[in-house]
Structures are given as structure tokens and as C-alpha cells.
Amino acid sequence: MQRIGVLLLGLAALPESATLAQQAAGAALWRLAGTTLPVPPALLTGPTATFWNPAQIEDSARTQIGVQAIQTPATIGAMAVLTVVRTRVRSLGQVGIVFGHVGLTDLARTGASPDPVGGTVPVYATAVGATWARAVGRTAVGGTLAFHETRLDATHSTRVTLDVGASREVTPGLRVAAATHFFSSFSANDPAQDVYAGVEYRLWRGPLWGDRAALRGRYGIAFGHGFTADHQVGLGLEVGRVIALDAGGVREGSYGTQAWRGVAGVSVTIGRYRVTFARDSGVNELGSAYRVGVDARFK
User: Fold this and answer.
1) DSSP assigned state of 225
2) What is the CA radius of gyration of the chain?
3) Which of 80, 100, 140, 248 allows an S-S link to 33, with CB 3.0 to 4.6 Å?
């Protein structure tokens, strides 16, 4: 998986440019967590989707809370948690707090041999920030100002990022969206940041299982990160605003070869709560990564 390769490149570059390498490695950890996204990042909706695209459509609920946990296969050993709290402020739109932490677990310290010599190597990235979103006609715009800390063993770096996003319903069945992710430099080849874009089109709408349903096709791209762009295609089926099924394929870019992998997810809405489960198919027999989340809306 090229995500691991990017992280290793960052580790290898530490002696020459510790700060830049750590920032790139931290972004690579978040890309690992993003392998479980069944919807292109630019097109995601919901509280925790704010982490990927701050331009979220304003909700009638007074407060929204989202929590997600991600677990990669044991061969990778990464775990992540995302928490977002958003509240509606009449004159401003929606404002909130974003928190995320991702890290490698059980990374043993070794010496001249592969045998552990005691203790583990801390490798993690943490982000906390303030987010805002507002509807302007048929367009949702938003921004997130975040503080990041990345630690690789005994060294660590910090930085501040300012991300912006937009999502527009062009027609009742067509939506386009774009966002920056961890933007901190005006560079088209910075491995510490991404640019997301996506388009969603409603292919069909009608009755299904006694309720109204809609089938949507999606395409998304991630680029501007210094290696080949990632491409994601997929379908989403929503039944009665209660059940949503999403599936697709992702062609991951890298500094060398590219690879396809599948990803799928399901979410169920029960009253004010929405429960989500997603997983990817993994590549190179590394195993699958999993995501579990709960969103809550309070009026």
C-alpha cells in the first residue's frame, strides 16, 4: 500500500529536513485512515465529514455530534479516532470543533537485530481546530483552522493549516464539491497536503421496498500531494433516508506503481442517531481496514 511507502519516505528523510518530513508522514497517516471512506472525501456529508470537507450543508438540528473509530489491519497497526461537534448560530451558520488522532501501535524499538530492545516507538498525528460552514444560495461554503502535531519517535513538529471547501447543487440531481486538506503552503507538490474534488449525479429515483429511494453515481479525485493522483468511483443507494449503501473502487496513486482496491459502507438512521460501518478490501494481502461511527442530531 503506497500510504505506508509515503510514511517510510518521510521517516527516511528526517536527517535532511525533519519538519517537512514529519508533516508529510503525518498526512500519510491520515491517508491510511481515509482508506475506509466509501464516498470521495469532497462529497462526504455529516458531522465527521467536516474533517475532510468543511463545506457541509446547514442542518436544521441545533447541535450535531459525530464520532468515528478506524482500525487498520494488524500488519499496518494504525488506529484513529475522529470527533466533531457542530452547532447552529443563526447569524453565522454552523460553527464547531474538530479533533482527530491517528497513530501506529506496537511499533517496537530494535537495535542491531530485529528483536525488540524495550519500549515502543511513538508515531502519531493529532489535529484540533475550529470549523465553520454556511449556505449561500445553493452553495455550501466552509473553512477549518487547525493546529497539528506530528511525532516520530523523539522528534515532533507542529503547524497550522487553513482549509476551505465548497459544495454546490448545480441541479436537483447534480452536485459538485471541492476542498483543500491540511493546506499550509502554496505548492502543487506538497506531500503534507491534498486537494479534493468530486461530482455526484442522481442516476435513478423511485419506489423501492415500499419507500422512496435514490441511486447516485460518484467520482472523486485527490491530487496536489506530490505523487500520482488518487481516483475513486462508486455508487450510493439511499432508501427512505433510513438506510444508505455505498460501494466503489479506488485507484491509489504512488511514487511507483498504482493499485486498485474496493471499499464499501452501510449506515442506518434510527431517530436522531446514524450508525455507520465501512471497510476496504485491502491490497497486497495486507488485510482490511474498518471504520465504525455514530452521528447524533439534537434539535
Assistant:
1) B
2) 19
3) 80
